[in-house]
Amino acid sequence: MQSKEKTITCSEEVRVRFNETDPLGIVWHGHYIVYFEDGREAFGRQHGLSYLDIQKAGYVTPIVKSTCEHFLPLKYGETFRIDTTYINSVSAKLIFRYEIFNKQNKLVCSGETTQVFLDSEGNLSLYNPEFFQQWKDKMEL
């Protein structure tokens, strides 16, 4: 169940690297998931919810679901913007929505990931961990 109250977004500019392209100079489809991770990491740094913050609290957040839809190609040397939006949920999980735009501000790709909380022993957290609930309260979610 998702809450429609408030979302938080982060934008990050990235440049396509040579090793991310196929022989035609077009970004290989699998790298878009890596771009999503770039977006999540930028979000975490900007909003105080980095992987290191989560790890320090004694948790890891593996991805249990990901989707990715492609609309336009990116090519070697291009810069693009990835908008990463946290989708608030009452469940103990992290949901992020991604939109990748080229320099012409055209939608290149969109997708979503869902992550769950596992404690240091690998147990699934059914309730928001205390540190995460504190973060949500601070962000007024």
Short synopsis of the structure:
The chain has 141 residues and is an alpha+beta fold. It has helices spanning 31-47, 51-56, 130-138; strands at 2-15, 59-60, 63-70, 79-89, 93-101, 107-116, 118-119. The model has no long low-confidence stretch (mean pLDDT 95).
Helix content: 10-25%
Describe the largest sheet. Answer: 5 strands, antiparallel
Strand content: 35-45%
Give the class from helix and strand content and strand pairing: alpha+beta
Taken in chain order, the helices and strands follow as EHHEEEEEEH
Count of β-strands: 7
The rough form would be described as elongated
Instruction: Give the CA-CA distance, first to last residue.
Output: 14 Å
| Order of neighbouring strands in the sheet with most strands | 1-4-5-6-3
Low-confidence stretches: none
* Mean pLDDT over the full residue set: 95
Backbone CA Rg:
16 Å
Describe what you observe in this structure:
- With 141 residues, the chain is an alpha+beta fold.
- It has helices at 31-47, 51-56, 130-138; strands spanning 2-15, 59-60, 63-70, 79-89, 93-101, 107-116, 118-119.
- Strands 1-4-5-6-3 form a five-stranded antiparallel beta sheet, with helices on one face.
- The protein is elongated and about 45 Å long.
- It starts with a strand and ends with a helix.
- The mean pLDDT is 95.
